[in-house]
Amino acid sequence: MKKLLLSAGLGLCLAVSACGGSGDAKKDGEVSRVFDPFPSTYTAYPSGATLITGATVLDGKGGLIEGGSVLIEGGKITGVGADLTAPEGAATINAAGKWVTPGIIDNHSHLGAYPSPGVEAHGDGNEVSGPVTAEVWVEHSVWPQDPGFTRALAGGITSLQILPGSANLFGGRGVVLKNVPARSVQEMKFPGAPHTLKMACGENPKRVYGYGRGSFPGGAPYSRMGNVAGYRAAWIEAAEYKKKWDAFIDGEGEEPARNLELETLAGVLNGDILVHMHCYRADEMAIILDLSEEFGYRVAAFHHAVESYKIADKLAEYGTCSSMWADWWGFKMEAYDGIRENIPMVHNAGACAIVHSDSDIGIQRLNQEAAKAWSDGKRAGIDIPIEVAWQWLSLNPAKSLGIDDRTGTLEPGKMADVVVWSANPFSVYAQAEKVYIDGALMYDREDPAIQPVMDFELGQPGEGDRK
């Protein structure tokens, strides 16, 4: 029996008549394989062998090595330890007194889709034409020239997830990027990363649609119960769509017409597209967990999740992540019960805790956001070692994005996404001095020649261009 291949968030080639590009040639009686109409064309920047020595190394999976070394070869990490020898021709970086970590991964960003300068013409992050817009892909809004990308690079961000906004019940697909200067978003796309689906619960959808927004007259959903009814109706339709394609592939029915919205939702039901859900309140997160069980999909992460501490045990049991701010709360009613100990309390319950930005400013100092949460936990008696807390910034977001087998920790064989810090990165005085992505030195605080400037900034002194 053939399986309906709604694969990994790639472009979905479900029918012979719809296939093209890189799809395999059709054989009699078969449906062509899944292909990606917008494939990653990412190629790592050139790099050589580099040995970083004498540093305090946080390996990203809970380990700390004093006087440690990290060896990079061929764009990969090939060694982590106390006594490593540089191969012939390798560059050696004396990092005595400095700290080395995996690159930071921000799993909630809108860079490129809401770029700088923040003018209306650049606001492409929300497709507010209806409460269900699962057919849109945020990568088609991402502007690679956003100066926010290089500002984030200077803060140690090596990979990031760009999400649509939270106006909709189903806002569309997200995309995972490597944080490198590029001409197109496809040149930034993290190779092989699953696509994601942005969903939102709570105040935003009912405010945008029920109460009307600008020229939009309003309509369903008006309420939280309307939100849930909207999810369920969409999942029911997607399940029927998937069922028809399963029957067709098994030779038991006619070829259905393609539907871009339902392709995305069916991809979630097939387990290949990861759900990232904007949700603040504990009671609503609990409802969404039940909803996911009803329709047989999984929630990869709740975002913002200011009340995760109330149901941290349930989140741990389910196996989902909470992607949270350190101390944002109270700016609307559903954010009112936020507490500063949220992240360490979620971690302490055995759940997957993540520090995210949702901000073009916060992404520049996400290490400090993690430090705030860590220190708040410490004051509350939750004493988490720094080397363990670093998982909030690298390993855990990598898990939520389905890329932890390739990045997120300093382990041999993984991408050499590495940051050299001037001091303990949980110090407010620490700066990212060198940032490597796939072994290539992409940012060097001491060398203006390795501090990328976007084309949009050229000729604008004070906006990144020093000339």
Q: What would CATH call the architecture of the domain at 102-410?
A: Alpha-Beta Barrel
Low-confidence stretches: 1-35
Query: Can you tell me the overall shape?
Result: globular
The CATH topology annotation of the domain at 102-410 reads as: TIM Barrel
Oligomer: single chain
Question: How much of the sequence is in beta strands?
Answer: 15-25%
Order of helices and strands: EEEEEEHEEEHHHEHEHEHEHHHEEE
Helix run count: 10
Give the proportion of residues in helices.
10-25%
Mean pLDDT: 91
For the record, the CATH class of the domain at 102-410 is Alpha Beta
Protein architecture, described:
With 467 residues, the protein is α/β, with parallel strands linked by helices. The chain has a domain at 102-410: TIM Barrel (Alpha-Beta Barrel), CATH 3.20.20.140. Helices cover 22% and strands 20% of the residues. The protein is built from 10 helices and 16 strands. It has helices at residues 148-153, 203-210, 224-249, 260-269, 282-295, 312-318, 342-348, 366-379, 386-389, 395-401, and strands at 50-58, 64-73, 76-81, 91-94, 99-102, 104-109, 157-162, 170-178, 196-200, 274-279, 299-304, 321-324, 352-355, 418-421, 432-437, 440-444. The strands form 2 sheets. Strands 1, 2, 3, 4, 5, 14, 15 and 16 form an 8-stranded mixed beta sheet that branches. An 8-stranded mixed beta sheet has the order 6-7-8-9-10-11-12-13. Strand 12, helix 7 and strand 13 (352-355) form a beta-alpha-beta unit. The longest helix has 26 residues, at 224-249. It is globular and about 65 Å long. The termini are far apart.
